[in-house]
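Run folding on both entries below.
>entry_1
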Amino acid sequence: MSDLSTQLYQVLLRATPEQVWEAITSPDRTRLYFHGAPVENTAEWHTSRGPDGADWGDGPVLEFDPPRRLVHEWRSAYDPELAKEPPSRVTWEIEDTGDGSCRLTVVHDRLDDSPRTARSVSGPGWGTVLDGLKTLLETGAPSVSAP
């Protein structure tokens, strides 16, 4: 099996950095592409709730530099087995490409002691979220799927 302890994803988005920032920090926007979950990121705290309001994980925000960089702790509280694992970290970097688009890089790391979480979020896990984000920003259409 490949090492999943650090996962890197990149997507080019036809959107401004401010639009991307709003889409990753506003619960009204995240619920449209992040499995129906209202996810809120403030300068202090990352909060994720399921569509029914259940705790899907929260933790401190480690860096908050709008509209360029967001770093927060990740806990997979939506699954009892994953919730037993230590928290990991997600870094969102937004780079303006200067042509009305930007490059979003997502790094999910500190997964060394969280192998179940690493498998859960790898590939289709983050891929589905980022595909939905791209669709939302570029077409306005929500892309909600079940977790």
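>entry_2
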Amino acid sequence: MEPMSDQPARWSRATVYPDMWVGPDDDPRNSEGVSPDGELATLEDFLTNYRITLRMKCEGLDAEQLSRRSVPPSSMSLLGLLRHLAETERDWRNWISDAEPLPKLYDEHDGDFDGAVAEQTEVDAAYAALAREQAATDAALAEHPDLSERLGKDGIAVRELLVHRIEEYARHCGHADLLRERIDGRVGQ
């Protein structure tokens, strides 16, 4: 008889490829068919798919699971990632604006992670903040379709900002992979 373990067993919902999160027919990301035409559409497609991936990694978890920390001394959690990316989206708007900076969503240093507590109201607020901040940043950038245009006080190129957004979501999707596997053993792309 094997000893009991508090470590979750690895599993996936995929039916075709066991290393996938879900089967190809259930994957909401644009992974089949013709890819978008043009650089801007390609960058936006990658960003959209990483955003969807992050949400997929959070699906089906309750407030306690979403707020569960990775390993000490890290304060990282899936809920913290949602809050952090909302804060980051807001900060990106500050980069491209000549106006006074928007205030932080989570005041203190690391408030996005430290304030990620196991309460459903916090989960709901994090999802709402992320959707709101993503939409606002998307709308601000939609006014600047020229990828070479330089914006804000520091003159950041639209292309650079879009690539940085993709990089930020991709990096945190990697964190989300590990966090989710630690919570319930679910694995996949």
